[in-house]
């Protein structure tokens, strides 16, 4: 069985972590396959939004496969840590907007995958958190860096150092997730969120994401220059001219990503 299930519906890509028997824990094979799928998405002009989720109803992902890890040599543990960090950084840097549709438990590396996404929509009856310190380790796939940038240093330290498992509503209060949805409405609400972006120009989506992500890592004036350059990329596009024509004709634009 493939550890990653991939499906494309029109311009929306779905990546499903497909080890439900292991609560979608990451073993090395899954990391390799996930990396290959993400690399293919990066260069696919037909994909405009990406959704990550987990197979089954129990877990988005509970992180590293501890059954695998207890049998690994120290060298292979380091290999796995490098690979998971590399793959999650690739996900974070995807030009397309990304959504983690969190259909169950998200602990450790599972939570770190969600943090590498732009948005997190979570079922209302689950738990999530960075729980690594309870295992004598620390978040090693970006958690110590992405979480404080998302919710602030003090709150991030609190959650990491206590290894606290948050209920969905608590995670929303902390600013950790974007939306909380009833389980039977999770797919519908995630789809509507994706559709709101898919209705807009795909080049504009990518350039806006690029400007925000890269501008946040620098000072304001440099960020403004990044924004200006990103804006200039949209000026000669067919999509911009289509939007102007559609406005004049009082219709919705049909964007082609050109």
Automatic annotation (TrEMBL):
- Does the keyword Lyase feature in the UniProt annotation? yes
Q: Keyword check for Lyase, yes or no.
A: yes
Q: InterPro entries, per this entry?
A: ClpP/crotonase-like_dom_sf, Enoyl-CoA_hyd/isom_CS, Enoyl-CoA_hydra/iso, Enoyl-CoA_hydra_C
Task: List, alphabetically, the Pfam families matched.
Answer: ECH_1 (PF00378)
Going by the UniProt record, its keywords in alphabetical order are:
Lyase
The record, for SUPFAM superfamilies, names: ClpP/crotonase
Its family remark reads:
Belongs to the enoyl-CoA hydratase/isomerase family.
Record protein name field: Enoyl-CoA hydratase/carnithine racemase
Q: Which organism is it from?
A: Planomicrobium stackebrandtii
